[in-house]
Specification:
It contains two helices and two strands. The chain is of the alpha+beta class and 68 residues long. It has a two-stranded parallel ribbon with strand order 1-2.
């Protein structure tokens, strides 16, 4: 059996996107749905990421465990 475990950090407050600078020079994958991708927020996030950014925007809203 294999295990994959993540311990995410959540940033919030006055300027949470300032934490994106810590990803400088790293490859980033953003996983989202089509609505959020087209809302303008994704463009703001990508503008703050200085490295290579890939976007997967084909996640359905509130997905069940099976598609995930």
């Amino acid at each position: 059996m294999d295990t994959f475990w993540l311990r995410p950090k959540l940033y919030f407050g006055d300027d949470p996107m300032s934490a994106l600078s810590a990803l400088a020079g790293k490859r980033v994958l953003i996983v989202t749905d089509a609505f959020l991708a087209s809302s303008g927020l994704l463009d703001r996030v990508k503008a703050r990421l200085p490295g290579a950014v890939e976007v997967f925007d084909r996640v359905g809203p509130d997905p069940a465990l099976r598609p995930v």
